[in-house]
Amino acid sequence: MRRRFMFASALVSLTVAAPAAFADREVTTEITDALATSTAGDGGVADNIVITSSGRVTRTTVATPALTLDSDNDITQAGNITVTSDDDGGVGVHIIGGNTGDFTSSGQIVVTSETVPTDEDSDGDIDGPGAVGGNRIAVLVDGAAVFTGDILFSDTSQMIVRGNDSAGIRILTGIDGSVDYSGRLTLAGDRSTAIDIQDNISGDLNIGGAIAANGASAAGVSVLGDIGGAMTLRGNIATTGYRFQSRPTETYLEQLEADDLLQGGSAVVLSGNVSGGLYVGGPTADTTSETTSVLTTRGDAPTMHIFAGASDIVLGEVVIPAIADDPDTADVDESQAAQHLGYSFVVRGQVMASGDLDGVDATSIRVEGGAGTTATLTGGFLNQGTISAFAYGVPGEEAVATTMSVGAGAIIPLLTNLGEMRATAVGTGAISALYGAPTTADAVAYETVALDLSHATTATLVRQYRRDGVDEDVSLAIYGDVLFGSGDDVLQVEAGQVTGNISFGDGADQLVITGGSIVSGVLADADNNLEISVDDASLVLGAATDLGISDARLGDGAVLSFQIDHTLDVAAFVNASGTVTFEAGSRITSTLTNLIGEGATYVVLTADSLVIEEALDVLQDTTAP
User: Fold this and answer.
1) What confidence tens digit (pLDDT) does each residue in 96-152 have?
2) Phi-psi category of 189—alpha, beta or left, where left has phi over 0 and alpha has psi -120 to 50?
3) Cα gap 132→533, rounded to integer Å
4) Rounded to whole angstroms, how far apart are CA atoms 391 and 362?
5) Distance CA 240, CA 424 (A)
6) SS3 of 603, please?
């Protein structure tokens, strides 16, 4: 008994003698000295750093970062951090790998030069370089080892960075955790990147809020490392090198100088594996409250650029996480099960590109491999939002508007459109989807391409349909040319419309049109190995169509229309090496673009075997202007 009593007494004495935990190092007013977690505590010991909403760290030298996380501690920043100097360099927060902790920001971080460009000649825009000095970073993560922890920015956080070769967030070492940005980030400087991720992240990468990057080759979000979770975009990202807000008038353009007309970088660059796929958020019939993400690039860089570098990259399936029920609302169940979308790249928001100047191409999305490497979207691509490209062309300054370009080395087995993909251009001498020839005597000055799959060597299915529950008034369309590669490709249109020239490459290809949809344009197939099937839908062939196919079947409600242009003396023509079947209820018509006068005869269809199940009232719907 005595021995037990003495042991208990010793235990009590040991507990009482233990020192109390250190309090966080709080900054509640303005300080000018740099702080590091390794020496932040009383007596120079390691401790957490808390910058309260009234606290400020103000630096006018770039020798030492304002805050440094260099121990197993956290930094919580609700106040302001400012680093102002014309010297190169300058870091707001430095997070060193090999440590464990979290960085949480709900305040402002400003890293800029003391000298700010101004409008010296009062012409409405700043003059000279957009930034003085460079290599400025608001939050830098680097080191020889992985940093363990999360980096979190709330919707009240803000970053302002002005400098060339600079960044809002730059990650140069791996992170065992997640990165979540929901604030406002404004970046100015050539070759700078708002969020620059050059190493791996084990968890999720979530980007919300609003990001704007301006400067030559200035980019929004660049991911060159692997993402172990999902990459989710739920905010607005805008990039440009221009110093004007919209396409300038001729008078205003004459006032602009070379540094006002620079070409910026992409809103999103991805060259790494993403296990949980790439998601651009926006509302759907099932998620009406979700915010629309808007990604915009004004200039010749693609708005979203996904590419393989020295190694293959693979994007996995997008899964919308489950939502738990809110325990504070007992009468309402807000819970939602996880949504397995089945695709690797999903757009529910808006992806927009605009050249703004004559002769500048506009590309919304580009996916491509590298030199001997591939970029694979294992589940394919899904558009439920709006993807648009706008270009301006004149003879001598031609331009191409492309909504989605799939380059060599890209493997995308399925592209599904449940929204709108629109390539638009303004200029002279455009190739018309219905005529296939210049509409004026001018040289062709621009082109509109909705889907460029011409470099693909594997089979691709492009499918367009309307989901159950989606209103018929909601636009469902592809506007612009569709160019296929050398695989066994299928274009399957089950609703809406496809307006543009359609070119199939080599391979056993199929065009399937159903559900009251309308497909119109010049149709071509490189090896005359195309099978056409139309049911309760319309296929309008542009006048320049000179098409060889294998077989065609037109079912009940199908309309096959041939465009005839007597002025250009061209008419759509189809030759089938196999059988063309007109089932009961189908019909064939012609569309005249101008007056024929005394009349003319055009041969529009030949086939090795022609099957007509009932008498056709040929040209019964023909109208002449």
Assistant:
1) 999 999 999 999 999 999 988 777 766 667 777 788 899 999 999 999 999 999 999
2) left
3) 62
4) 6
5) 19
6) coil
| Amino acid occupying residue 307 | F
Tally of CA atoms within 13 A in the half-sphere of 306 that contains its CB: 29
- pTM for the whole structure: 0.91
DSSP 568: T
Mean pLDDT of 412-418: 97
Task: Assign residue 427 a region (left: φ > 0; alpha: ψ between -120 and 50; beta: otherwise).
Answer: left
CA–CA gap between residue 538 and residue 552 (Å, rounded): 13
Helix (H) or strand (E) holding 450: strand 446-452
- The amino acid occupying position 123 is D
Q: What is the DSSP string of 523-566?
A: EEETTS-EEEEESSSEEEE-TT-EEEESEEEE-TT-EEEEEEET
The two tokens of residue 141 are 């993560």
Structure tokens that stand for 466 in this block: 């309307």
What is each CA distance from 415 to 127, 271, 449, in whole angstroms?
Answer: 45, 20, 15
Map residue 203 onto helix, strand or coil.
coil
Give the C-alpha separation, 146 to 93, whole Å: 17
Nearest to 319 by CA among 384, 376, 379, 386: 379
Question: In terms of pLDDT, which residue wins out, 281 or 9?
Answer: 281
Phi, psi angle pair for 433, to nearest 5°:
-65, -25
What is the distance between the alpha carbons of residues 453 and 461, in angstroms, rounded to a whole number? 11
Measured from the Cβ of residue 11, the count of other Cβ atoms closer than 10 Å reads 10
Beta strand 375-377 with 538-541 is unpaired
- The total number of residues shown for the chain amounts to 625
DSSP string, 433-446: TTT-SBSSSSPP-E
The two three-digit tokens of residue 152, written as one number: 């979190």
Secondary structure of 107-154 in the HEC alphabet? CEEEEECCCCCCCCCCCCCCCCCCCCCECCEEEEEECCCCEECCEEEC
The closest of 244, 183, 187, 248 to 217, measured between CA atoms, is 187
The pair of three-digit structure tokens given for residue 9, joined into one six-digit string: 């007494």
